[in-house]
Write a structure and sequence with these properties.
Blueprint (H helix, E strand, L loop, with lengths): L1 H14 L2 H35 L9 H4 L2 H6 L1 H10 L8 H35 L10 H24 L3 H6 L5 H7 L1 H15 L8 E4 L4 E8 L3 E6 L4 E5 L2 H4 L3 E2 L1 H6 L2 E9 L9 H8 L2 H21 L14 H14 L11 E4 L7 E9 L4 H18 L13 H6 L13 H5 L1
Helix pairs in contact: 2-5, 5-6, 6-7, 14-15
């Protein structure tokens, strides 16, 4: 009874001050909204999280990591305010309408953000599939997000203007030209993404090269508007997606899938060191098992040729003979055929190129049996280390421009160092 009287007195006193009653109502509404938010975040969300851990969709806690449930829980306080603002006494209809619109807009934004986070979960689950490397869907999901945010913006505008969304869409055609200009890059990127996916031009993990954009490395991310390439110096190059359609680029996937990487390099030989083999050189080279069979077969071929000449064979100008260059070429061919780092099922040849003022190029064209960069470089270096070191055994010389030391040994240039002109003494 006493409590009832106190309450009646307090209510009577409160009726005399409308602003006090309005503030008390707002305070109660905010308190209820805070309690509802606390219950949603600390009770409902935690319970849903524990339940979601049992679902196969929640791979590695994807739902929690992208905050799908947390975002959706933000709807609760907005709904409480939207419903309860009309119950606050002495508030003007205009304020009630504005607060309700703001709460409604917050609900729309929260729903779109929740769907966006759910799409991120879908993308992560899709990336677990083997086909994801060939057909990424991140770009398409980003397009869906753009559409969702556009629809959300229209709903919010319709809420504040108190117009139906279809009425707004009716006037949407008049803005098409403006929107085409604003979303030009997005539209181009969407078309490029479809073409890239359809023609299988680029996949995640591919090594691509675009010198014009300073890109030379592995594709680590493909989205609607951009493709990220991690260069071999660990820098990141971001390429607009449509540039892969309009510009030329090189994809090294074919090399990676073939199992072999091409070695194409030439040794420049001094042409004055090319000569016919004499008997001592012949016997010396025949001791190599890589040349033994070649020299026997070549000798028989040359003997048959010379014999077919008849009396004309007496002149050395008409006879064929072994050369140190041809023998060296055969040696390289056999050496590569026995090398454990060379792919024997792919093209393997040693050829002469057109002589130049820088010497006679003897080119090696073959493939390593691994595409690993370090292995490839080691095999290539090992081959040319050996060939450069064994050249003198064939009486051949490498051609190179004369250096300062060469000119000094020839007496054409002399260097004199005077103690008075040393840099250290000049400093003092």
């Amino acid at each position: 009874m006493q409590h009832s009287e106190l309450w009646n007195r307090f209510a009577g006193w409160l009726d005399q001050y409308d602003w006090m009653e309005m503030l008390l109502g707002l305070g109660i509404l905010l308190l209820v909204a805070w309690i509802a938010n606390w219950l949603a975040k600390h009770v409902i969300v935690r319970g849903v999280r524990r339940f979601s851990q049992l679902l196969p969709l929640n791979h590695n806690g994807a739902l929690s990591r992208f905050k799908v449930i947390d975002r959706f829980a933000n709807i609760v306080p907005a709904l409480v305010i939207k419903i309860g603002i009309a119950q606050v006494p002495h508030l003007s209809p205009g304020i009630i309408r504005i607060v309700g619109m703001l709460a409604q807009a917050w609900v729309f934004i929260t729903i779109v953000l929740t769907i966006s986070a759910a799409l991120n979960v879908v993308n992560e689950l899709y990336q677990r599939r083997p086909v994801a490397r060939n057909k990424p869907i991140k770009g398409y999901l980003q397009l869906v997000k753009i559409v969702l945010f556009i629809v959300c913006a229209l709903l919010i505008v319709g809420t504040f203007l108190q117009k139906d969304i279809f009425t707004l869409l009716a006037g949407f055609g008049a803005m098409a030209a403006v929107l085409m200009l604003v979303f030009q890059n997005t539209i181009l990127s969407l078309v490029a993404s479809v073409q890239i996916s359809s023609y299988d031009m680029v996949r995640l993990g591919d090594w691509i090269t675009m010198p014009g954009l300073n890109a030379d490395g592995d594709v680590i991310d493909m989205s609607l508007n951009t493709i990220k390439v991690q260069n071999f110096d660990k820098t990141i190059t971001t390429i607009p997606t449509n540039r892969l359609i309009t510009d030329t680029f090189m994809n090294w996937r074919g090399m990676s899938e073939s199992g072999g990487r091409r070695i194409k390099r030439a040794i420049l030989l001094d042409q004055t060191s090319v000569h016919f083999l004499d008997n001592d050189e012949y016997q010396h080279l025949k001791s190599s098992f890589l040349l033994d069979k070649y020299l026997d077969e070549k000798n028989q071929e040359i003997a048959a040729w010379n014999e077919s000449l008849g009396p004309q064979a007496n002149s050395k100008l008409n006879q064929r003979a072994l050369t140190n260059l041809g023998t060296f070429r055969a040696y390289i061919q056999n050496y590569l055929q026995h090398h454990p780092g060379i792919h024997q099922e792919m093209t393997l040849l040693v050829r002469q190129l057109e002589p130049t003022a820088q010497g006679l190029p003897l080119e090696i064209y073959c493939f390593s049996n691994s595409t690993d960069w370090a292995f490839y470089e080691n095999v290539q270096s090992d081959i040319f280390d050996h060939l450069l070191a064994i050249l003198p055994e064939f009486g051949l010389r490498v051609f190179q421009q004369p250096s300062g030391a060469d000119l000094t040994n020839m007496g054409l240039v002399s260097f004199s160092a005077s103690p008075e002109t040393t840099p250290m003494q000049q400093e003092h």
